[in-house]
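Backbone-to-sequence.
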C-alpha cells in the first residue's frame, strides 16, 4: 500500500508543469495610431502655418470704407501684359461718387450682372447652381455666376488665373467686403473700377470714351449698351454693334424699363 502511494506521489512530482503566459495584445493598432498622429502633425502643422499666413495676407477691406483705391490688380495686370507684348496702353480712369453716375447705368449694371445684388450676402447660390448646370451641359467653363461683390474682389485684389485657391481667396474677400461695406459703397467701387475697354476703367471714363459725355448724363439706351459690354469689355464696343451685343442690349433695356425695376434701390449720396 505504501509502495502504491509512493508511486502516485512520484508520478505527480515527475509531471512537467509549464507556464504559458497569456498572449500579449497586438501592437499593430497602436503602431497605426502613432503613424496617423505623426502623419497629421508633420502634414497638418505646415498646412496650418500656410493657411494662417494666407489669412494674414488677406487685404484689409476696411480701408475702403472711406478711402478710394489708387490702382487695382486688374489694371496692373493689363499694364504688365501690354509691356510683355511691347505695346502701349494708357489708363483712362476718373473717379466719381455714386451720385454722379446715371441711375440708368446703376439699374442696367445691376439688372445685367447681379439682379439679386441688394438681397444676397455676396453669393448668388441660385446663379452659381444655374451656371454650374450650364457649364456641365456645355462641357466647358462658359459662365461663372459671379456677383458684383465677387467681381469687385477679383478686380481689386486678384489675378485672372482659374484655380481653387484663387476662388477660395475670392470667397473670403467677398465675405469681408459684404461684412464691412454697405451695398451702396460696394456698387460705387464696382462702377468706378470696372473695365469698359482697353485702358478704360470706371463709369466716367467709359461714358466719355464711348459717348462723349459725363456718366451722369447717360440715357437708358446708352447705359444698356455699357452694361451689355461688361462680360467682355475689351472685345465689345457699343459703336460696333455685333449681333450678340445688340441682343444683350435689348434684353437689358427691357429689364431696366420694366415696372419691377423700381424695386431696385436708387442710392444717392
Amino acid at each position: 500500500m505504501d509502495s502504491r502511494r509512493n508511486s502516485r506521489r512520484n508520478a505527480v512530482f515527475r509531471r512537467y508543469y509549464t507556464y504559458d503566459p497569456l498572449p500579449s495584445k497586438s501592437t499593430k493598432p497602436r503602431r497605426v495610431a502613432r503613424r496617423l498622429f505623426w502623419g497629421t502633425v508633420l502634414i497638418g502643422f505646415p498646412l496650418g502655418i500656410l493657411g494662417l499666413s494666407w489669412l494674414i495676407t488677406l487685404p484689409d477691406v476696411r480701408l475702403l470704407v472711406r478711402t478710394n483705391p489708387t490702382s487695382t490688380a486688374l489694371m496692373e495686370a493689363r499694364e504688365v501684359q501690354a509691356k510683355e507684348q511691347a505695346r502701349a496702353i494708357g489708363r483712362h480712369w476718373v473717379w466719381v461718387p455714386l451720385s454722379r453716375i446715371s441711375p440708368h447705368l446703376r439699374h442696367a449694371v445691376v439688372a445685367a450682372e447681379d439682379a439679386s445684388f441688394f438681397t444676397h450676402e455676396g453669393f448668388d447660390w441660385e446663379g452659381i447652381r444655374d451656371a454650374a448646370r450650364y457649364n456641365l451641359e456645355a462641357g466647358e467653363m462658359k459662365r461663372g455666376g459671379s456677383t458684383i461683390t465677387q467681381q469687385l474682389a477679383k478686380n481689386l485684389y486678384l489675378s485672372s488665373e482659374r484655380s481653387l485657391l484663387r476662388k477660395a481667396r475670392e470667397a473670403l474677400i467677398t465675405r469681408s467686403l459684404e461684412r464691412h461695406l454697405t451695398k451702396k459703397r460696394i456698387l460705387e467701387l464696382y462702377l468706378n473700377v470696372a473695365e469698359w475697354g482697353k485702358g478704360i476703367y470706371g463709369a466716367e471714363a467709359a461714358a466719355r470714351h464711348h459717348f462723349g459725355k459725363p456718366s451722369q448724363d447717360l440715357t437708358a439706351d446708352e447705359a444698356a449698351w455699357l452694361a451689355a459690354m461688361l462680360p467682355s469689355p475689351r472685345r465689345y464696343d457699343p459703336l460696333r454693334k455685333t449681333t450678340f451685343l445688340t441682343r444683350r442690349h435689348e434684353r437689358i433695356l427691357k429689364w431696366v424699363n420694366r415696372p419691377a425695376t423700381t424695386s431696385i434701390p436708387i442710392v444717392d449720396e
